[in-house]
Amino acid sequence: MKIKVNDQVVILTGKDKGKTGRVMKTLRKKDRVVVEGINMIKKHQKPNNANENGGIIEMEGSIHVSNVKKIENDTKTKKDTKKAKKD
Q1: C-beta separation of 36 from 7 below 8 A
Q2: Which CATH architecture has domain 8-74?
Q3: Reduced to 3 states, what is the DSSP secondary structure of residue 73?
Q4: Which residues are CB-contacts of 32 (< 8 A; sequence separation ≥ 6)?
Q5: 53-60 long-range contacts, Cβ below 8 Å, gap at least 24?
Q6: What does the pLDDT read at residue 81?
Q7: Is 16 strand, coil or helix?
Q8: With a cut of 70, which residues of the chain have pLDDT below it?
Q9: Which pTM was predicted?
Q10: Contact at 8 Å (CB) between 61 and 15?
């Protein structure tokens, strides 16, 4: 897997197609990544010491690594660059 934590990525497919975000976590054995603010899911949580009231919590779900693409920023032009395809 070439994508690492803190890389900027763009989402290629799914409900969040076209959005960009930072990789928070990589799950190498499952070939999945967790991207900040993307694929938000709702989780029902029982009350515990950290969360006394419990309830419904929104958190990021994982996305398969084939559905994201790493973005490299060009510092001179302030635009995203793509690697040229070799024919």
Answers
A1: no
A2: Roll (2.30)
A3: strand
A4: 26, 62, 63, 64, 65
A5: 60/24, 60/34, 60/35, 60/36
A6: 60
A7: coil
A8: 73-87
A9: 0.77
A10: no
